[in-house]
Amino acid sequence: MVYNQLIILNLLQAFLNWKCRMIISAFFVKLGGHCGDVDPPGPPQNLRLSDMKNILCTLTWNAPGYDGGSPIIGYYVESYIGSCWNSINAIPLQVCSIDVQLLDTNSDNEFRVCAVNAVGVGLPSEIISVAPPPCIGLFCLPVKLLICY
Question: Which domains are delineated in the chain?
């Protein structure tokens, strides 16, 4: 029952995020739209897991190398759920970091980030896969970040 409610809430959130993104894009097009040498921004760079506490993780990234000729307005963080990418935030983030809760505690969670400028949403960053912490019964053990070279 709770799992079904979670799925319905996620679908509703995905729809509302999509609708909000369309409204924001239409607003920016009305303000100035696509003019000459202005393009959507390039993908954000160096998406990484900077911290993890149980099922809450912090993702950080760097601004894109190419802003499309227009300042970066913000960023959308997306999570892969089921068979599609869903935005985690309804409005663009002004910072290059976000705390997210792992939605799937049984397998890896995938995330990516898209930058936004006055023209629209740019290409996504590389995908980062975050493994959930090992759990014993109802208790999840703290996880240390391991960097392998």
Answer: 2-140 (2.60.40.10)
